[in-house]
């Protein structure tokens, strides 16, 4: 593609920002990001940049920035709510085999770092600009209409506008209905005055229809997620989210109680969890999907943000190498669809098991978790996550 093509990225989240950086590094000069929000949201609190995403960030020359605020991890440990140890996945092995370290990060810190990089590269970032819709201009291209009714055309439009109400997904697939997956996530970030009794291990506690995960960034800083199977639109049973969580998890590990109690109430968010059915149509005319708008997976996949980062790398490479726009989009979709679909479906399977409310099933699930061949599980994760990194 012509490096002077006018490229608009709709959405300044992790996917949109990383794509802008990757495109600039491939020599594309005319890039603008439109972001509807005025400031970065910390929805999701934190996430793990797994070794596969670190691979991309290294290639983009920004992994060293992550080292300054990210925390290294050793193991992902699984525990039953009664304190029975169910086994662990060795993150050191994942990192060694993929060749880069995984880091736990605050989502806002990571996005701020990307924003800084976007500024340094001179990429136009316009916040407070919401795209209202996309329409055909009658000439095999879409144009954008903004909330102020102005219209904009571009050679290429990248739809990185998330999972809940993607205008780009509506334009391409005529359907952007996210699917509620029957559980609520409460996410929080805790910066404690005193070190917490937590090594560099992810602690994943399993109940029946309930789960609590704690991810250390540093000894004084963790992000966490408490989850419970609940119908959509269920209301809180306690006056605050914090009290509701203390009530749900009152008989679990004392560490969970400490983490909930010490987190400021305003740093706890209640998020009903949605994903999308995989859909193999990622582009139409000059518009192409990226990140959650293309393949929103559940938090149980652990890979949502990492896959948006991988998309950025592959889309930028294809736009840089191929002749026509259609060929580039097709090649990108062909590389990405199977991997992201496998990740979305594995996230659903895991959620179905974790949020089952059948007590006999949960007991059997925990029993078999103890006898799981975790080396094999680790190998399978490495095989999927490292796919197509070249
Ligand atoms: C509760 C929860 C927990 C999660 N936990 C993890 C985890 O542990 N690990 C992990 O890897 N992933 C996790 N994820 C997923 C991860 O957050 C997403 O996969 C990732 O943020 C995708 O990035 P994105 O850029 O595609 O979308 P987003 O981060 O959603 O960014 C989309 C951006 O587009 C903007 N936008 C939307 N519409 C418009 C419009 N019309 N005009 C202009 N701008 C627009 C939005 O404001 C937003 O900034 C979690 C998600 C949820 C909901």
Account of the protein in words:
The protein is an alpha/beta fold and 390 residues long. It has one domain (6-178, 275-385): FAD/NAD(P)-binding domain, CATH 3.50.50. Helix content is 38%, strand content 27%. It is built from 13 helices and 19 strands. It has helices at residues 14-25, 51-59, 63-67, 91-98, 107-120, 167-173, 241-248, 254-262, 292-295, 304-321, 325-354, 359-370, 374-385, and strands at 6-10, 30-35, 46-49, 71-72, 75-80, 85-90, 103-106, 124-127, 131-136, 142-146, 151-153, 156-159, 179-191, 201-206, 210-218, 221-229, 268-275, 283-284, 287-289. The strands form four sheets. It has a seven-stranded mixed beta sheet. Helix 2 packs parallel to helix 10 (304-321), helix 4 (91-98) runs parallel beside helix 13 and helix 10 runs antiparallel to helix 11. It starts with 5 loop residues before the first strand and ends in a 5-residue tail after the last helix. The model has no long low-confidence stretch (mean pLDDT 95). The structure holds flavin-adenine dinucleotide.
How do you describe this structure in short?
The chain is of the alpha/beta class.
